[in-house]
Amino acid sequence: MNKEEQVIMGFRDLYNKMVWLNKDKMEDSLKGYKSSEVHCIEYIERNVDSNVTKLAESLYMTSGAISKIAKKLIKKGIIESYQKPDNKKEIYFRLTEQGKVIYKIHEELHKEFQERDKAVFEQVTEEQFDSMLSFMEKYSRHLDAEIKKQGIDIKSE
Questions:
Q1: What is the DSSP letter of 147?
Q2: pLDDT tens across the length of the chain (157 residues)
Q3: Which residue in 89, 101, 104, 127 is a FRET match for 41, CA 20 to 30 A apart?
Q4: What pLDDT sits at residue 133?
Q5: Residue 2 within any structural domain of the chain
Q6: Which residues pair with 84 in a beta bridge?
Q7: Which domain holds residue 87?
Q8: Gap between the Cα atoms of 84 and 90, Å rounded
């Protein structure tokens, strides 16, 4: 296996380990919510005027899938839709008070996982962080370009 393959396999392996380690606690704390729903909640809280298009682009999902998730979250009382007075065409989403509770639980879990992994990150130098971040940005831009070649403009905004 060459270094390129080792890096890709390493990313996949790290991601899978994180998901496996975090899964039970996430599922226990966020019972009744799928991962995709929680990620929608997170995006809506962090981004003003979230809509189906922005959510789909950010979460790499279809607009249809996001619409279904949004309907479920509205039905559960987690998000609400609204329109701007100057734009009656576009529908936006914001969290309800109940949605903010779910968001807060999710954030607290992330802080807990970050604390668990802190010992490793404390050993990483600024130069190492910069190098890793630079690589991830380059690779991400490359993948965005490949996605765009397939006629899907995910990061248009």
A1: H
A2: 899 999 999 999 999 999 999 999 999 999 999 999 999 999 999 999 999 999 998 998 999 999 999 999 999 999 999 999 888 889 999 999 999 999 999 999 999 999 999 999 999 999 999 999 999 999 999 998 998 888 765 544 3
A3: 89
A4: 96
A5: no
A6: 87
A7: 34-123
A8: 8
pTM above 0.90, yes or no: no
Q: Token pair for residue 2?
A: 């060459």
For residue 97, CA distances in Å to 77, 79, 117 come to: 9, 9, 31
Q: Which two tokens stand for residue 146?
A: 């490949």
The secondary structure of residue 81, as a DSSP letter, is E
Token pair 């790499």: residue? 60
* Torsion from C-alpha of 67, 69, 75, 80, nearest 10 degrees: -70
Is 143 a domain residue?
A: no
Residue 16 to residues 10, 11, 97: CA-CA distances in angstroms? 10, 9, 32
The torsion defined by the Cα of 63, 69, 71 and 77, in degrees rounded to 10, comes to: -140
The dihedrals phi and psi of 51, each to the nearest 5 degrees, come to: -135, 175
The set of residues, in sequence order, having a beta carbon less than 8 Å from that of 148 and lying 6+ positions away, is 154
